[in-house]
Design goal:
alpha+beta, 30% strand, single chain
Length: 171
Amino acid sequence: MSSESKSESIEKWNSLYINAIKSEPPSLLTATIVHGFKRGSKELGIPTANLDMDELGEEFQTFKLGIYYGWAKMNNGDIHRCVVSVGWNPYYKNEKITIEAHLLTNLEDFYGEKLSVLICGYLRDECNFTSLEDLISCINEDIRRCNVNLDTDASIGKYKDTSTWPVAIRK
């Protein structure tokens, strides 16, 4: 890991977030968690829940590519903050689009469970990185911005209560 300070990391990635917006209304995605490429936990130290793209259907393969933030609900009803990647993961040169949610909590094995993700806002465009260290640094900045947005915007914070979630899936 780099020894760059938190403020250096924020400054380094600031230009990526110029298109950040809140989603009104939020988009709700629900699918089974499937095995991915096993890079999140092992290589990045940032585990992700990969949503079953077949369950989501073709319409979500054209979902705007990028990094989002919001809330995630597990089968057991627990609500967690999340950062969601929708895209090709260019650093890894994926051959298909994936939707992966990084839940900002420590969870045990959750494969096969249903996960509902309420996308509340768009953080940045998908981009490539020159090093694994840069990718991890930027993901950590995504997490920081997710927390700031969920903590400071009451219109988004209200969605921690799932009774306020939209019923229909919207793109």
